[in-house]
Structures are given as structure tokens and as C-alpha cells.
Amino acid sequence: MDKTAIRATGVLLTERDIELFCYLNEQKFMVSGQIYQIFWPECDPRTGTSRQRLTKLAESGYVKVIETEKNRLRLFLLTEKGIDVLRKKRLDHNFSELTDVNPVLVEHTLKLVNIRAVFRDLGQINWRSERLIRKEDAKRGWYPDAMLDVHGLKIAVELENSFRSKDRYIQRFKRYVNRTPSAGRR
After folding, report:
1. Which residue, of 74, 146, 148, 185, has the greatest Cβ tally within 10 A?
2. How many CB atoms neighbour CB 153 within 10 A?
3. Given 77, 97, 124, which residue is the final one in a domain?
4. How far apart are CA 53 and CA 33, in angstroms?
5. CATH number of the CATH domain containing 83
6. Taking every pair of C-alpha atoms in the chain, what is the biggest distance, in angstroms?
7. Directed axis angle between helix 15-27 and helix 106-121, to 10°?
8. pTM for the whole structure
9. Structural contact between residues 22 and 31, judged by C-beta atoms closer than 8 angstroms
10. SS3 label, residue 66
């Protein structure tokens, strides 16, 4: 057990729990399969270790589960109690608990979590979600789905669930090319 674990309501929070809270805070929500794959890759969900931990975090009030109407997905979101844990560690980004999920964005968001997981497996952890970008750089006027910093090279991640017109892509790429980075901006 690490030295920075926090004991609250009978649950000893681990660094893995804190990292999960950060993901949920930044990405808005995840499904259990993603959580198991990212945070307990060595465990078989059928054996129960990862499932039991996620259930314990939910029962303790750190995460909550909502079910989508359209495709009956069970989404895990961070609660205000979970955000408070992040706030104490200065990892909350001044976000607050989400009370609802836009059903139109569920598929897109879950795909982005999968992309983030692939980069994480490749050792690329400098990921900034659109939620963070919007919060930290509100003057930008356009927001990629994520930004990834790979050895100092900033890469914009754009995921489209459907085909867009060629003109739309040309305009988007022009924005990226014409963007001159400001000093101190990530």
C-alpha cells in the first residue's frame, strides 16, 4: 500500500483509485470494461477483484453509475465525494460532479477513452482531454477532442463518428497549421 493512500468511510484509497478518479474527472465517464482493462489489466473481471473494488468505490459514494436509455450502457461517473479527494490533492481542475450525460456524446466519449488507453499502454500519458482544454484555454475558439504531448510534439486528436465533408477537414487543418503557440501554453 502506498504512503499517500487516504482512509475515509472504511475504504483505504490507493493511487490506482486516485488515477481512476482523475480519468473519470477528465473523460466524464467510462464503462466497467474500460476501467478493468486500464486499471486492472492483470485481473480477470470474472474473478471479481476488479469488480469488487469498483463496487466498493460506488457503495462508498466515490463513483456513481447511471444507465443510458438508448443502449443500456452502465456509465461510471465521479461523484462530488470523489472530486473532493482530487481537490485535496489539487487534481480536480475545478470540475464539479456531472448530473447528466448527453446521450449523443456517449459513443464518441467512450471511443476517446479507448484511444487514451492505447496511448497509455504505449507509455504516452501526457493526454489532455477536451474537457481540460476547454477549462484551461477558453479563448481558443476551437477544441480538439484531446491533445497529446509526445516528446514535446503536441498532437491534436480528432475523432469523428461519421464522415464529414472534405471542406470541413480542410478548414480544421488550416486552424491547426495557422495556430501559433503562445509562450507557456501547453
Report:
1. 146
2. 7
3. 124
4. 13
5. 1.10.10.10
6. 56
7. 140
8. 0.81
9. no
10. strand
Helices (H), 60-150: 80-88, 106-121, 130-136
Write down the mean pLDDT value for the chain: 85
Are residues 49 and 2 part of one domain? yes
Domain boundary among 124, 157, 178: 124
pLDDT digits (tens, 9 = 90+) for 56-102: 999 999 999 999 888 789 999 999 999 999 999 999 999 999 998 99
- pLDDT tens across 119-134, in order? 999 999 999 999 998 8
pLDDT value, residue 136: 81
Residue with cell 450525460: 101
Q: Which residue has the cell 438508448?
A: 70
- Type of residue at 82: G
Contacts of 50 (CB under 8 A, 6+ apart): 35, 36, 39, 40, 43
